[in-house]
Amino acid sequence: LAGGIILGVALWLRHDSQTTNILYLQLGDKQAPNTFYVGIYILIAVGAVMMFVGFLGCYGAIQESQCLLGTFFTCLVILFACEVAAGIWGFVNKDQIAKDVKQFYDQAFQQALMADSETNNGKAVVKTFHETLDCCGPDNAIGAVTPLWRDDLCPKKELSDRRASLLQSSNCHKKIDELFSGKLYLIGIAAIVVAVIMIFEMILSMVLCCGIRNSSVY
């Protein structure tokens, strides 16, 4: 059940409309940074393997098989080690993920402003960011001194309702940070829940295995 829950959460995060709209974008021959999906794929793999390993442990407990319970314990140890490694990787890269996406957005934004023709897809990339995140413009000095707010780049309600405070409350850098910090927060919670469940599983499987071994003596 725990494996199924983790798998479901991971698949939901993987197919979330906001992240997929942004991370599937392509600017010329450059793909949007999708380092964020590494953590998602790890969760999917852990969830799927947990379901299989859980079935193995259940069957081993029913059959009172020390071999199956030992295999169950070994698989849990390996999964736990992988999860700790993934957690360390996520903690180290949590700020870099949003930073890479913001750099990609800035490049597209500059291309959209500099190109009057449709020779590149910078405008399309920028509009996707603006419509998906409900924001308008980057959080930098260029945005403050350049007349950037055009109907073909920003959502119309942003232009009409927030023109006076675009840089303060609705810049896309802030929205990108909020999007990925929220998603990474969910991944962190899921990882902690899985780790706690695994610890209990390892303890209980060893207690059961030892109980079966002692009972076989009599």
UniProtKB/TrEMBL annotation:
<keyword id="KW-0812">Transmembrane</keyword>
<feature type="transmembrane region" description="Helical">
    <location>
        <begin position="184"/>
        <end position="208"/>
    </location>
</feature>
<dbReference type="InterPro" id="IPR000301">
    <property type="entry name" value="Tetraspanin_animals"/>
</dbReference>
<dbReference type="GO" id="GO:0002250">
    <property type="term" value="P:adaptive immune response"/>
</dbReference>
<dbReference type="InterPro" id="IPR018499">
    <property type="entry name" value="Tetraspanin/Peripherin"/>
</dbReference>
<dbReference type="Pfam" id="PF00335">
    <property type="entry name" value="Tetraspanin"/>
</dbReference>
<keyword id="KW-1015">Disulfide bond</keyword>
<keyword id="KW-1003">Cell membrane</keyword>
<dbReference type="GO" id="GO:0008289">
    <property type="term" value="F:lipid binding"/>
</dbReference>
<dbReference type="InterPro" id="IPR008952">
    <property type="entry name" value="Tetraspanin_EC2_sf"/>
</dbReference>
<feature type="disulfide bond">
    <location>
        <begin position="136"/>
        <end position="154"/>
    </location>
</feature>
<feature type="transmembrane region" description="Helical">
    <location>
        <begin position="68"/>
        <end position="92"/>
    </location>
</feature>
<keyword id="KW-1064">Adaptive immunity</keyword>
<keyword id="KW-1133">Transmembrane helix</keyword>
<keyword id="KW-0446">Lipid-binding</keyword>
<feature type="disulfide bond">
    <location>
        <begin position="135"/>
        <end position="172"/>
    </location>
</feature>
<keyword id="KW-0472">Membrane</keyword>
<comment type="similarity">
    <text>Belongs to the tetraspanin (TM4SF) family.</text>
</comment>
<feature type="transmembrane region" description="Helical">
    <location>
        <begin position="36"/>
        <end position="62"/>
    </location>
</feature>
<dbReference type="GO" id="GO:0016323">
    <property type="term" value="C:basolateral plasma membrane"/>
</dbReference>
<dbReference type="GO" id="GO:0042127">
    <property type="term" value="P:regulation of cell population proliferation"/>
</dbReference>
<dbReference type="InterPro" id="IPR018503">
    <property type="entry name" value="Tetraspanin_CS"/>
</dbReference>
<keyword id="KW-0391">Immunity</keyword>
<protein>
    <recommendedName>
        <fullName>Tetraspanin</fullName>
    </recommendedName>
</protein>
